[in-house]
Amino acid sequence: MSKKNEFIQSVKGTRDLLPAETPLWQRVEDEARKVFAAYNFREIRTPVLEQTSLFARSVGSDTDIVTKEMYTFDDRDSGSLTLRPEATASVVRAYIEHSLYNEPGIQKLYYFGPMFRRERPQKGRYRQFYQIGAEVLGSDHPAIDAEVLEMLVLLLERLGLKEFRLLVNSVGCPKCRPEYLKVLRKALDEAKARLCEDCQRRVTTNPLRVLDCKNEADQAVIEGLPKIIDHLCSECRQHFDSVTMDLKQRGVAFEIVPRLVRGLDYYTRTTFEITSGLLGAQNALLGGGRYDGLSEMLGGPPAPGFGFAIGQDRLVLTVEASAASRPAGPLAVYVAWMGETTREAATLLARELRRAGIGTEISYHPVKLKKAMGAASKLEVRYTLIIGEEEVASGNYQVKDMGTGEQQSVSAGDVVAFLKQKLREGLQAESQLLEQK
Ligand code: HAM
């Protein structure tokens, strides 16, 4: 066999989502759009390219993302650019650039799209991956944190997920965190020798990052370190207590996990993750939190923020693994025409069906009945429309139900309405079946 050209291979850590997979991706996106709209979120789309300094300033210059994982290059005339590793920084940039803070009320924004991080690829971890995220800008009210978490749980439930855990924590604010960092540094100085090389460096550069270290050998040391939650100032403590109380009132189950500081520097107060046991090593399905100083850090007005990003690749894996996926509506109708003289009527009818939102395929050549039935079975359509010369002359088409094999004659003018009704009945029966399961 000849050697395959190496360019006929997607770049390491990237992949094609083939037509067999995309219906599930679309279903997840459709459900997210519906849930976000119900909570009054509106979509924002920002570029995948940003100035490198945007991420260095917001995500933090000593984070893994900025030091090791960004795809950065010098553009000919725009300086250093980076393929976005996340979108919170971009959304806040857009919020400042377009003065969205001048619009009345708070901004509730959501986004879908690819992100890029040069991580070691494995199941659930890619170099180009997709996030579904949302950000609320303009208020630090604890009810926002609780409401967004309630929305997330609703979305996961609507997708049929059951096995997930919501982990929450508070990382304090610029007032209380320095005090905690002093205590943490002291403890870390004593434990330094038992930590990995990266963490030894972090003890001086960014000690909070030690808590987020994924190195197995470091976990026992991390377990014994002082907890930030025990060192919150009274405002942060009150904020956290309000969030947790509100979650309880809303019936949202959660666990407090004091080590949850997250891998990005912009967080203040609430941080959270939702994990799923169905995911294996990369078990964080989504993460987020509050970032009250980020707008100012980027030169904008005070605009407290709270948000999250779901790893869509992981969400799709989880929905698949939980067997909650329902195949997207298959193609509904196949139009088979026999003889050149029927072509026009068949083509116009296919157009009408598609205009009515009915998924339709049509043969491009005249077909023989037997072949047409074979093609229809392969396409797995519900109905086949048979249009021969006789049918065109009489104005009555043959509609064959591919499930029961029954065939009936329907007048040309009624076909679209007839199929619409039939498909609606079929959908109802299907959803009743699903509910009974
Ligand atoms: P993050 O925790 O870095 O947060 O990413 C959010 C989610 O993206 C993760 O929980 C994971 O599911 C997914 N993810 C991250 N890296 C990869 C990867 N290499 N492959 C596949 N999935 C991945 C953020 O990005 C923040 N911007 C979230 C946020 C929004 N905080 C406030 N607002």
Task: Write a brief caption for the model.
The chain is α+β, with helices and mostly antiparallel strands.
Descriptive notes:
The protein is an alpha+beta fold and 437 residues long. Helices cover 39% and strands 21% of the residues. Strands 1-5-6-11-10-9-7-8 form an eight-stranded mixed sheet, sandwiched between helices. Strands 13-12-14-15-16 form a five-stranded mixed sheet, with helices on both faces. Helix 1 packs antiparallel against helix 5. The chain is elongated. Histidyl-adenosine monophosphate binds at residues 86, 88, 117, 119, 124-126, 129, 131, 133, 135, 263, 284-289, 307-309, 311, 313-314.
Q: Layout of helices and strands, plus pairs?
A:
Blueprint: H1 22-38, E1 42-43, E2 49-51, H2 52-58, H3 64-69, E3 71-75, E4 79-83, H4 88-97, E5 107-116, E6 128-137, H5 142-158, E7 164-170, H6 177-191, H7 197-205, H8 208-211, H9 219-223, H10 234-249, E8 255-256, E9 268-276, E10 284-290, H11 294-297, E11 305-311, H12 312-321, E12 333-337, H13 343-355, E13 360-362, H14 369-379, E14 383-387, H15 389-394, E15 396-401, E16 407-411, H16 415-436
Parallel strand pairs: 1-5, 7-8, 12-13, 12-14
Antiparallel strand pairs: 2-4, 3-4, 5-6, 6-11, 7-9, 9-10, 10-11, 14-15, 15-16
Helix pairs in contact: 1-5, 5-10
Residues 86, 88, 117, 119, 124-126, 129, 131, 133, 135, 263, 284-289, 307-309, 311, 313-314 line the site of histidyl-adenosine monophosphate (HAM).
Features:
alpha+beta, eight-stranded mixed sheet, 16 strands, elongated, binds histidyl-adenosine monophosphate
Total beta strands: 16
> How many angstroms separate the termini?
49 Å
Shape: elongated
- Ligand types: histidyl-adenosine monophosphate
